[in-house]
Amino acid sequence: MENTEVPIITQERVVINEVSAPVEELHTEDIQDIVGTPPGSLMRWGITWVLIVLLGVMALTSFIRYPDVIKAQVRINAANAPKAVISRVSGNIVKILVKENDPVAEGQLLAWMESTADHRQILNLADKLDAIRNGHSEGKGMNIILDAPKGLRLGELQSSYQAFYQSYLTYSAATGNGIYLKRKTFIKNDLQHVSMQRSQLGEQGKLNEREFNLAAKNFERYDALAKKKIISSSEYEEQQAVFLAKQHPLQQIQSALLANENSYTAKMKELADLENQITEEKSKFAEALNSLISEIEKWKSQYILTARQSGTVAYTGIIQLNQYIQTGQEVFRIDPGSTLFFGEAKVRQYNMGKVKEGQEVLVKLDGYPFEEYGVLRGRMMRMTGAPYQDSIFLSKIKLSPITPQRHIQLRTGMIGTAEIITEDASLFKRLARNIRLLVDKKD
Fold first, then answer.
1. Domain map of the chain by residue range?
2. Which residues in the chain show pLDDT less than 50?
3. What CATH topology corresponds to 336-440?
4. What is the reported pTM?
Protein backbone atom coordinates (compact mmCIF):
# COMPACT_ATOMS: atom_id res chain seq x y z
CA MET A 1 0.00 0.00 0.00
CA GLU A 2 2.77 2.51 0.87
CA ASN A 3 4.67 1.77 -2.36
CA THR A 4 1.67 2.80 -4.53
CA GLU A 5 0.93 6.25 -2.90
CA VAL A 6 4.41 7.84 -3.17
CA PRO A 7 4.70 7.87 -6.95
CA ILE A 8 1.28 9.61 -7.25
CA ILE A 9 2.35 12.62 -5.10
CA THR A 10 5.60 12.98 -7.01
CA GLN A 11 3.78 12.97 -10.31
CA GLU A 12 1.41 15.85 -9.25
CA ARG A 13 4.24 18.10 -8.21
CA VAL A 14 5.94 17.52 -11.52
CA VAL A 15 2.77 18.58 -13.39
CA ILE A 16 2.39 21.77 -11.33
CA ASN A 17 5.92 22.80 -11.95
CA GLU A 18 5.61 22.19 -15.67
CA VAL A 19 2.48 24.38 -15.93
CA SER A 20 3.64 27.32 -13.82
CA ALA A 21 6.93 27.86 -15.62
CA PRO A 22 5.49 28.61 -19.12
CA VAL A 23 2.81 31.08 -17.72
CA GLU A 24 5.44 33.30 -16.18
CA GLU A 25 7.35 33.38 -19.41
CA LEU A 26 4.14 34.24 -21.47
CA HIS A 27 3.24 37.36 -19.42
CA THR A 28 6.69 38.65 -19.75
CA GLU A 29 6.65 38.42 -23.55
CA ASP A 30 3.30 40.39 -23.87
CA ILE A 31 4.58 43.25 -21.80
CA GLN A 32 7.75 43.31 -23.81
CA ASP A 33 5.71 43.44 -27.07
CA ILE A 34 3.62 46.41 -25.85
CA VAL A 35 6.58 48.36 -24.59
CA GLY A 36 8.84 47.54 -27.45
CA THR A 37 6.37 48.27 -30.34
CA PRO A 38 6.19 52.03 -31.36
CA PRO A 39 2.59 53.67 -31.46
CA GLY A 40 0.74 53.99 -34.76
CA SER A 41 -0.15 57.18 -36.70
CA LEU A 42 -3.59 57.52 -34.99
CA MET A 43 -1.97 57.64 -31.60
CA ARG A 44 0.68 60.10 -32.75
CA TRP A 45 -1.76 62.52 -34.63
CA GLY A 46 -4.91 62.06 -32.55
CA ILE A 47 -4.69 65.35 -30.66
CA THR A 48 -3.92 67.21 -33.86
CA TRP A 49 -6.95 65.74 -35.61
CA VAL A 50 -9.17 66.60 -32.65
CA LEU A 51 -7.92 70.20 -32.76
CA ILE A 52 -8.52 70.37 -36.52
CA VAL A 53 -12.08 69.06 -36.11
CA LEU A 54 -12.79 71.60 -33.37
CA LEU A 55 -11.46 74.43 -35.51
CA GLY A 56 -13.60 73.21 -38.43
CA VAL A 57 -16.71 73.13 -36.26
CA MET A 58 -15.99 76.67 -35.07
CA ALA A 59 -15.51 77.79 -38.66
CA LEU A 60 -18.84 76.25 -39.63
CA THR A 61 -20.56 78.06 -36.77
CA SER A 62 -19.43 81.33 -38.35
CA PHE A 63 -21.25 80.46 -41.58
CA ILE A 64 -24.33 78.73 -40.20
CA ARG A 65 -26.96 81.40 -39.45
CA TYR A 66 -30.53 81.33 -38.25
CA PRO A 67 -32.83 84.25 -37.39
CA ASP A 68 -34.26 85.49 -34.11
CA VAL A 69 -38.04 85.41 -34.37
CA ILE A 70 -40.63 87.29 -32.33
CA LYS A 71 -44.15 85.95 -32.66
CA ALA A 72 -47.18 88.21 -32.50
CA GLN A 73 -50.86 87.89 -33.21
CA VAL A 74 -51.82 89.50 -36.53
CA ARG A 75 -55.14 90.59 -38.01
CA ILE A 76 -55.69 91.37 -41.70
CA ASN A 77 -57.16 94.80 -42.43
CA ALA A 78 -57.60 96.96 -45.52
CA ALA A 79 -57.08 100.62 -46.36
CA ASN A 80 -60.79 100.86 -47.16
CA ALA A 81 -62.12 98.17 -44.88
CA PRO A 82 -65.71 96.87 -45.02
CA LYS A 83 -68.09 98.96 -42.92
CA ALA A 84 -70.66 97.38 -40.65
CA VAL A 85 -74.28 98.55 -40.66
CA ILE A 86 -75.48 98.38 -37.05
CA SER A 87 -79.01 98.74 -35.72
CA ARG A 88 -79.45 101.65 -33.31
CA VAL A 89 -82.80 100.50 -31.95
CA SER A 90 -84.34 97.21 -30.94
CA GLY A 91 -87.26 95.98 -33.03
CA ASN A 92 -88.38 93.99 -36.03
CA ILE A 93 -87.22 94.49 -39.60
CA VAL A 94 -90.35 95.57 -41.49
CA LYS A 95 -88.78 95.86 -44.95
CA ILE A 96 -85.56 94.62 -46.58
CA LEU A 97 -84.60 96.67 -49.64
CA VAL A 98 -81.49 94.81 -50.86
CA LYS A 99 -80.38 91.26 -51.48
CA GLU A 100 -77.09 89.73 -50.49
CA ASN A 101 -74.17 90.57 -52.82
CA ASP A 102 -76.13 93.44 -54.39
CA PRO A 103 -74.04 96.50 -55.34
CA VAL A 104 -75.05 99.54 -53.31
CA ALA A 105 -74.11 103.22 -53.36
CA GLU A 106 -73.22 105.38 -50.40
CA GLY A 107 -76.37 106.52 -48.60
CA GLN A 108 -78.59 103.87 -50.20
CA LEU A 109 -81.39 102.53 -48.00
CA LEU A 110 -80.95 98.91 -46.97
CA ALA A 111 -83.81 98.09 -44.56
CA TRP A 112 -86.53 99.64 -42.39
CA MET A 113 -86.79 99.06 -38.68
CA GLU A 114 -90.13 98.94 -36.89
CA SER A 115 -91.55 102.41 -36.00
CA THR A 116 -94.89 104.07 -35.28
CA ALA A 117 -94.31 106.37 -38.24
CA ASP A 118 -94.92 105.70 -41.91
CA HIS A 119 -91.45 105.41 -43.45
CA ARG A 120 -92.64 106.58 -46.89
CA GLN A 121 -94.24 109.71 -45.45
CA ILE A 122 -91.09 110.53 -43.50
CA LEU A 123 -88.90 110.10 -46.58
CA ASN A 124 -91.30 112.15 -48.72
CA LEU A 125 -91.34 114.91 -46.10
CA ALA A 126 -87.54 114.86 -45.92
CA ASP A 127 -87.31 115.39 -49.70
CA LYS A 128 -89.71 118.34 -49.52
CA LEU A 129 -87.84 119.94 -46.65
CA ASP A 130 -84.53 119.59 -48.47
CA ALA A 131 -86.03 121.28 -51.54
CA ILE A 132 -87.43 124.10 -49.37
CA ARG A 133 -84.06 124.62 -47.66
CA ASN A 134 -82.23 124.74 -50.99
CA GLY A 135 -84.68 127.29 -52.36
CA HIS A 136 -84.56 129.31 -49.15
CA SER A 137 -80.76 129.46 -49.14
CA GLU A 138 -80.74 130.58 -52.80
CA GLY A 139 -83.30 133.30 -52.12
CA LYS A 140 -85.98 131.71 -54.28
CA GLY A 141 -89.62 131.67 -53.44
CA MET A 142 -91.19 128.65 -51.81
CA ASN A 143 -93.48 126.88 -54.28
CA ILE A 144 -93.83 123.66 -52.26
CA ILE A 145 -96.98 123.13 -50.23
CA LEU A 146 -96.71 121.05 -47.07
CA ASP A 147 -99.50 118.87 -45.80
CA ALA A 148 -101.29 119.61 -42.54
CA PRO A 149 -100.16 117.47 -39.57
CA LYS A 150 -103.65 116.03 -39.16
CA GLY A 151 -103.38 113.82 -42.25
CA LEU A 152 -99.87 112.46 -41.61
CA ARG A 153 -98.51 109.47 -39.71
CA LEU A 154 -95.20 110.79 -38.45
CA GLY A 155 -95.03 108.81 -35.24
CA GLU A 156 -92.15 110.06 -33.10
CA LEU A 157 -91.91 113.26 -35.23
CA GLN A 158 -95.58 114.24 -35.02
CA SER A 159 -95.20 116.92 -32.31
CA SER A 160 -92.07 118.36 -33.91
CA TYR A 161 -93.82 118.67 -37.25
CA GLN A 162 -96.83 120.41 -35.69
CA ALA A 163 -94.57 123.08 -34.18
CA PHE A 164 -92.79 123.48 -37.49
CA TYR A 165 -96.05 123.73 -39.40
CA GLN A 166 -97.06 126.83 -37.41
CA SER A 167 -93.78 128.46 -38.35
CA TYR A 168 -94.39 127.38 -41.93
CA LEU A 169 -97.80 129.10 -41.98
CA THR A 170 -96.32 132.30 -40.58
CA TYR A 171 -93.53 132.17 -43.12
CA SER A 172 -96.02 131.62 -45.93
CA ALA A 173 -97.95 134.65 -44.74
CA ALA A 174 -94.74 136.67 -44.67
CA THR A 175 -93.47 135.65 -48.10
CA GLY A 176 -96.55 134.59 -50.06
CA ASN A 177 -99.94 136.26 -50.59
CA GLY A 178 -100.58 136.50 -46.86
CA ILE A 179 -101.31 139.34 -44.50
CA TYR A 180 -97.69 140.49 -44.42
CA LEU A 181 -97.57 141.00 -48.16
CA LYS A 182 -100.92 142.82 -48.12
CA ARG A 183 -99.77 145.12 -45.33
CA LYS A 184 -96.61 145.78 -47.26
CA THR A 185 -98.63 146.61 -50.36
CA PHE A 186 -100.87 149.00 -48.44
CA ILE A 187 -97.91 150.78 -46.90
CA LYS A 188 -96.23 151.15 -50.25
CA ASN A 189 -99.47 152.58 -51.70
CA ASP A 190 -99.69 155.02 -48.81
CA LEU A 191 -96.09 156.07 -49.44
CA GLN A 192 -96.92 156.62 -53.07
CA HIS A 193 -99.92 158.76 -52.14
CA VAL A 194 -97.86 160.78 -49.70
CA SER A 195 -95.24 161.33 -52.37
CA MET A 196 -97.91 162.49 -54.82
CA GLN A 197 -99.34 164.81 -52.18
CA ARG A 198 -95.89 166.24 -51.55
CA SER A 199 -95.50 166.93 -55.25
CA GLN A 200 -98.87 168.71 -55.38
CA LEU A 201 -97.98 170.75 -52.33
CA GLY A 202 -94.71 171.68 -53.95
CA GLU A 203 -96.48 172.88 -57.08
CA GLN A 204 -99.02 174.79 -55.01
CA GLY A 205 -96.21 176.30 -52.99
CA LYS A 206 -94.55 177.57 -56.15
CA LEU A 207 -97.80 179.26 -57.26
CA ASN A 208 -98.31 180.87 -53.89
CA GLU A 209 -94.73 182.06 -53.90
CA ARG A 210 -95.22 183.71 -57.32
CA GLU A 211 -98.39 185.39 -56.06
CA PHE A 212 -96.53 186.52 -53.00
CA ASN A 213 -93.71 187.97 -55.06
CA LEU A 214 -96.17 189.86 -57.23
CA ALA A 215 -97.97 191.12 -54.15
CA ALA A 216 -94.67 192.20 -52.65
CA LYS A 217 -93.74 194.22 -55.76
CA ASN A 218 -97.18 195.81 -55.81
CA PHE A 219 -96.91 196.70 -52.13
CA GLU A 220 -93.49 198.24 -52.71
CA ARG A 221 -95.04 200.60 -55.24
CA TYR A 222 -97.81 201.57 -52.82
CA ASP A 223 -95.24 201.98 -50.10
CA ALA A 224 -93.31 204.44 -52.28
CA LEU A 225 -96.50 206.36 -53.03
CA ALA A 226 -97.39 206.44 -49.37
CA LYS A 227 -94.01 207.92 -48.48
CA LYS A 228 -94.58 210.67 -51.08
CA LYS A 229 -98.02 211.31 -49.57
CA ILE A 230 -99.63 210.54 -52.89
CA ILE A 231 -102.11 208.03 -51.49
CA SER A 232 -104.05 208.08 -48.29
CA SER A 233 -103.10 206.09 -45.24
CA SER A 234 -106.29 204.04 -45.44
CA GLU A 235 -105.51 202.97 -48.98
CA TYR A 236 -101.98 202.14 -47.93
CA GLU A 237 -103.23 200.01 -45.05
CA GLU A 238 -105.62 198.22 -47.36
CA GLN A 239 -102.75 197.28 -49.71
CA GLN A 240 -100.67 196.25 -46.74
CA ALA A 241 -103.45 193.87 -45.57
CA VAL A 242 -103.59 192.37 -49.09
CA PHE A 243 -99.84 191.82 -49.00
CA LEU A 244 -99.97 190.17 -45.59
CA ALA A 245 -102.80 187.95 -46.71
CA LYS A 246 -100.56 186.59 -49.47
CA GLN A 247 -98.14 185.25 -46.78
CA HIS A 248 -100.71 182.91 -45.19
CA PRO A 249 -100.86 180.42 -48.12
CA LEU A 250 -97.07 180.08 -48.03
CA GLN A 251 -97.14 179.29 -44.33
CA GLN A 252 -99.97 176.84 -44.84
CA ILE A 253 -98.01 175.13 -47.63
CA GLN A 254 -94.96 174.86 -45.36
CA SER A 255 -97.08 173.32 -42.61
CA ALA A 256 -98.64 170.91 -45.10
CA LEU A 257 -95.19 169.90 -46.36
CA LEU A 258 -94.02 169.29 -42.79
CA ALA A 259 -97.11 167.18 -42.10
CA ASN A 260 -96.55 165.31 -45.35
CA GLU A 261 -92.92 164.68 -44.40
CA ASN A 262 -93.99 163.34 -41.01
CA SER A 263 -96.54 161.09 -42.65
CA TYR A 264 -93.94 159.82 -45.10
CA THR A 265 -91.47 159.12 -42.28
CA ALA A 266 -94.11 157.28 -40.29
CA LYS A 267 -95.00 155.12 -43.28
CA MET A 268 -91.31 154.37 -43.92
CA LYS A 269 -90.90 153.39 -40.28
CA GLU A 270 -93.94 151.15 -40.52
CA LEU A 271 -92.55 149.57 -43.68
CA ALA A 272 -89.15 149.03 -41.98
CA ASP A 273 -90.83 147.41 -39.00
CA LEU A 274 -92.77 145.14 -41.32
CA GLU A 275 -89.61 144.23 -43.26
CA ASN A 276 -87.86 143.48 -39.98
CA GLN A 277 -90.77 141.34 -38.87
CA ILE A 278 -90.69 139.45 -42.18
CA THR A 279 -86.94 138.92 -41.79
CA GLU A 280 -87.43 137.61 -38.26
CA GLU A 281 -90.14 135.24 -39.46
CA LYS A 282 -87.83 134.01 -42.22
CA SER A 283 -85.07 133.47 -39.69
CA LYS A 284 -87.44 131.64 -37.33
CA PHE A 285 -88.65 129.49 -40.21
CA ALA A 286 -85.09 128.64 -41.29
CA GLU A 287 -84.25 127.67 -37.71
CA ALA A 288 -87.38 125.54 -37.40
CA LEU A 289 -86.69 123.99 -40.82
CA ASN A 290 -83.12 123.02 -39.94
CA SER A 291 -84.25 121.71 -36.57
CA LEU A 292 -86.91 119.47 -38.12
CA ILE A 293 -84.48 118.23 -40.79
CA SER A 294 -82.00 117.35 -38.04
CA GLU A 295 -84.68 115.43 -36.15
CA ILE A 296 -85.68 113.60 -39.33
CA GLU A 297 -82.02 112.66 -39.98
CA LYS A 298 -81.77 111.40 -36.41
CA TRP A 299 -84.97 109.38 -36.90
CA LYS A 300 -83.63 107.95 -40.18
CA SER A 301 -80.36 106.92 -38.53
CA GLN A 302 -82.37 104.97 -35.94
CA TYR A 303 -85.15 103.41 -38.00
CA ILE A 304 -83.58 103.17 -41.48
CA LEU A 305 -80.44 101.14 -42.14
CA THR A 306 -78.27 102.95 -44.69
CA ALA A 307 -75.08 102.05 -46.56
CA ARG A 308 -72.13 104.02 -45.23
CA GLN A 309 -70.09 103.56 -48.42
CA SER A 310 -70.34 102.15 -51.92
CA GLY A 311 -69.63 98.46 -52.39
CA THR A 312 -71.23 95.06 -52.13
CA VAL A 313 -73.73 94.31 -49.37
CA ALA A 314 -73.39 91.14 -47.32
CA TYR A 315 -75.69 89.79 -44.62
CA THR A 316 -73.95 89.16 -41.31
CA GLY A 317 -76.28 86.30 -40.49
CA ILE A 318 -79.71 84.98 -41.34
CA ILE A 319 -81.63 88.21 -42.00
CA GLN A 320 -85.31 87.95 -42.86
CA LEU A 321 -88.52 89.96 -42.70
CA ASN A 322 -90.01 90.61 -39.22
CA GLN A 323 -86.82 89.36 -37.58
CA TYR A 324 -86.15 90.89 -34.17
CA ILE A 325 -82.91 92.86 -34.01
CA GLN A 326 -81.16 93.98 -30.83
CA THR A 327 -79.65 97.43 -30.34
CA GLY A 328 -76.04 97.40 -31.52
CA GLN A 329 -76.48 94.22 -33.56
CA GLU A 330 -74.61 94.11 -36.86
CA VAL A 331 -77.09 93.51 -39.68
CA PHE A 332 -75.18 94.20 -42.91
CA ARG A 333 -71.59 94.71 -43.98
CA ILE A 334 -70.58 96.82 -46.98
CA ASP A 335 -67.43 95.56 -48.71
CA PRO A 336 -65.88 98.14 -51.07
CA GLY A 337 -63.72 95.43 -52.69
CA SER A 338 -60.43 96.94 -51.59
CA THR A 339 -57.23 95.01 -52.40
CA LEU A 340 -54.88 97.18 -50.34
CA PHE A 341 -54.56 94.76 -47.44
CA PHE A 342 -52.13 95.10 -44.56
CA GLY A 343 -51.52 93.38 -41.25
CA GLU A 344 -52.02 94.69 -37.73
CA ALA A 345 -49.58 92.97 -35.40
CA LYS A 346 -50.02 93.11 -31.62
CA VAL A 347 -46.49 93.39 -30.23
CA ARG A 348 -46.01 92.99 -26.51
CA GLN A 349 -43.98 95.54 -24.62
CA TYR A 350 -41.09 93.24 -23.64
CA ASN A 351 -40.47 92.50 -27.33
CA MET A 352 -40.99 95.94 -28.85
CA GLY A 353 -37.35 96.98 -28.33
CA LYS A 354 -36.20 94.49 -30.96
CA VAL A 355 -38.90 95.36 -33.47
CA LYS A 356 -37.83 97.97 -36.00
CA GLU A 357 -39.19 99.36 -39.22
CA GLY A 358 -38.16 97.46 -42.34
CA GLN A 359 -37.73 94.05 -40.71
CA GLU A 360 -38.98 91.03 -42.62
CA VAL A 361 -42.18 89.37 -41.39
CA LEU A 362 -43.60 85.93 -42.12
CA VAL A 363 -47.39 85.74 -41.72
CA LYS A 364 -49.10 82.40 -41.15
CA LEU A 365 -52.88 82.64 -41.51
CA ASP A 366 -55.12 80.36 -39.47
CA GLY A 367 -57.48 79.96 -42.42
CA TYR A 368 -54.67 78.89 -44.77
CA PRO A 369 -52.32 76.33 -43.12
CA PHE A 370 -48.77 77.28 -44.06
CA GLU A 371 -47.83 73.61 -44.64
CA GLU A 372 -50.18 73.66 -47.64
CA TYR A 373 -50.39 77.31 -48.71
CA GLY A 374 -47.09 78.64 -47.44
CA VAL A 375 -46.56 81.93 -45.62
CA LEU A 376 -47.16 85.56 -46.57
CA ARG A 377 -44.17 87.85 -46.60
CA GLY A 378 -44.12 91.46 -45.58
CA ARG A 379 -42.18 94.28 -43.97
CA MET A 380 -42.65 96.03 -40.66
CA MET A 381 -43.94 99.58 -40.97
CA ARG A 382 -44.57 102.08 -38.20
CA MET A 383 -45.58 101.23 -34.63
CA THR A 384 -48.11 103.19 -32.62
CA GLY A 385 -46.73 105.53 -29.98
CA ALA A 386 -49.45 104.73 -27.47
CA PRO A 387 -50.38 101.22 -26.32
CA TYR A 388 -53.38 99.59 -27.96
CA GLN A 389 -54.06 97.70 -24.75
CA ASP A 390 -52.18 97.22 -21.54
CA SER A 391 -48.52 96.59 -22.57
CA ILE A 392 -49.58 95.80 -26.18
CA PHE A 393 -48.63 98.00 -29.15
CA LEU A 394 -50.02 97.87 -32.69
CA SER A 395 -47.66 97.71 -35.63
CA LYS A 396 -48.54 97.87 -39.31
CA ILE A 397 -47.22 95.19 -41.68
CA LYS A 398 -46.98 95.91 -45.40
CA LEU A 399 -47.79 92.66 -47.21
CA SER A 400 -46.05 91.63 -50.42
CA PRO A 401 -48.24 90.87 -53.47
CA ILE A 402 -49.71 87.36 -53.57
CA THR A 403 -49.47 85.38 -56.78
CA PRO A 404 -52.73 83.83 -58.08
CA GLN A 405 -51.15 80.37 -57.93
CA ARG A 406 -51.16 80.56 -54.12
CA HIS A 407 -55.00 80.47 -54.05
CA ILE A 408 -55.03 82.72 -50.98
CA GLN A 409 -57.89 85.22 -50.88
CA LEU A 410 -57.42 87.82 -48.17
CA ARG A 411 -60.41 89.17 -46.28
CA THR A 412 -60.67 91.79 -43.61
CA GLY A 413 -60.74 90.27 -40.14
CA MET A 414 -58.64 87.17 -40.89
CA ILE A 415 -56.23 86.32 -38.06
CA GLY A 416 -52.95 84.47 -37.83
CA THR A 417 -49.43 84.58 -36.43
CA ALA A 418 -46.70 86.99 -37.50
CA GLU A 419 -43.09 85.92 -37.13
CA ILE A 420 -40.94 89.06 -37.03
CA ILE A 421 -37.32 88.38 -37.98
CA THR A 422 -35.42 90.74 -35.73
CA GLU A 423 -31.80 89.47 -36.28
CA ASP A 424 -30.13 86.94 -38.60
CA ALA A 425 -27.02 86.04 -36.48
CA SER A 426 -24.52 83.15 -36.83
CA LEU A 427 -24.05 80.31 -34.33
CA PHE A 428 -20.59 81.60 -33.45
CA LYS A 429 -21.94 85.06 -32.66
CA ARG A 430 -24.68 83.62 -30.49
CA LEU A 431 -22.17 81.34 -28.66
CA ALA A 432 -19.80 84.24 -28.04
CA ARG A 433 -22.67 86.37 -26.79
CA ASN A 434 -23.76 83.66 -24.34
CA ILE A 435 -20.20 83.18 -23.08
CA ARG A 436 -19.86 86.93 -22.58
CA LEU A 437 -23.08 87.00 -20.64
CA LEU A 438 -21.89 84.17 -18.41
CA VAL A 439 -18.61 85.95 -17.76
CA ASP A 440 -20.41 89.20 -16.98
CA LYS A 441 -22.66 87.42 -14.49
CA LYS A 442 -19.69 85.85 -12.70
CA ASP A 443 -17.98 89.23 -12.45
1. 84-107+308-335, 114-302, 336-440
2. 1-27
3. Elongation Factor Tu (Ef-tu); domain 3 (2.40.30)
4. 0.55
